[in-house]
Write a sequence for this structure.
């Protein structure tokens, strides 16, 4: 058992599907607690949510829904599948049981910073989820939302702490990295500051953009991750003897094993 977060930057075991939903929720809440006294009284923050319906080919047992979480059971290899005996075609008018697509309600939370007097949205902070990144309806919907924000003067902070799936679209980024933090100031149009870092590197601190001439707080995500790691007792829920999801590169795996003992 590892008593505290052993990594100098992002902990890859926190990315596993069984934990990430909780990690993401706690991280958004921790950012709110940290920023609130620094923004008052000029600004206030709120945690907003956006819901949409995706479709699932087959309903899970009992009709339960697990947004952003897929559990795959691998059955033991029982050898080649038996060859089905030939059957006669169904008689005219006979009925068959078929599966229909079912609705899957997904709710995404994000952080807004608003000006107190006008209520105007100044900054949006997004912590990306698997739904935002993996190909499909969720990613398409997030990319449309992202484009809408980029067409305004609203600042955008986009935090990507997931190694899985392709990064969100951007150009002129020649460095491939495990993780990314994007800070786009509204007055910069389509340009943004990219903080790219790998597993072994510290998570860079970055400013939270506000209106001109205002003091901008700096977010230290590593400190917040360490805080929620202890708060949620993730050391009791993580088995460091098992590889994380997604798996690490061979050289990173040896390095991580040395840290976790």
């Amino acid at each position: 058992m590892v008593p505290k977060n052993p990594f100098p930057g992002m902990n890859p075991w926190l990315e596993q599907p069984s934990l990430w939903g909780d990690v993401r929720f706690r991280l958004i809440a921790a950012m709110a607690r940290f920023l609130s006294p620094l923004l008052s009284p000029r600004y206030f923050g709120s945690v907003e949510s956006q819901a949409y319906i995706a479709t699932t080919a087959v309903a899970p047992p009992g009709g339960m829904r697990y947004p952003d979480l897929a559990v795959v059971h691998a059955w033991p290899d029982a050898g080649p599948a038996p060859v089905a005996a030939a059957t006669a075609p169904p008689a005219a008018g006979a009925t068959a049981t078929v599966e229909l697509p079912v609705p899957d309600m997904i709710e995404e939370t994000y952080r807004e910073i608003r000006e107190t007097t006008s209520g105007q949205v100044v900054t949006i902070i997004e912590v990306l989820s698997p739904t935002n990144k993996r190909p499909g309806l969720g990613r398409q919907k997030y990319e449309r939302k992202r484009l809408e924000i980029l067409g305004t003067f609203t600042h955008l902070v986009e935090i990507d702490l997931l190694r899985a799936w392709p990064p969100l679209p951007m150009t002129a980024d020649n460095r491939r990295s495990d993780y990314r933090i994007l800070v786009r100031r509204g007055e910069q149009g389509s340009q943004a500051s990219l903080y790219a870092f790998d597993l072994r590197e510290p998570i860079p601190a970055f400013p939270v953009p506000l209106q001109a001439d205002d003091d901008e707080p700096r977010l230290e995500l590593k400190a917040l991750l360490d805080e929620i790691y202890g708060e949620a007792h993730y050391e009791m829920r993580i088995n460091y003897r098992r590889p994380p999801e997604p798996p690490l590169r061979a050289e990173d795996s040896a390095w991580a094993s040395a840290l976790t003992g």
Summary: The longest helix spans residues 17-39. The beta strands are 43-56, 102-115, 121-127, 155-160, 179-184, 193-197, 206-207, 218-219. Helices lie at 17-39, 130-133, 137-150, 221-231, 250-260. Residues 56-82 have pLDDT under 50 and may be disordered.
